[in-house]
Amino acid sequence: VLIGATPGRLVELQTALASIGYAVSGGTDPGALVQLAGAARPVDAVLLDGDWLAPGTSTSVIESLFTAKQVPCVTLHGEPRRGRLAIDKLLAIT
Q: Which end of the chain is more exposed for a tag (fewer CB within 10 A), N or C?
């Protein structure tokens, strides 16, 4: 799972997902995140923090980049523990 978030939030989300067994990586810069997604081994899903970008900037542009690459992407608003639910649902894990 690839995560895009502010530095503090990135640590929270990575820790929450890694603690339940997800392999995670992430970035705090949109350009770096897109580069990570283009790595030799594609990611299974992308989790974006809703507060990651500058105020008033939508994550929809970043989401569309991943959608174009056929990588499922979801934006999370709220508690880091909801990240697991969002990723589980995105990947259809029960």
A: C
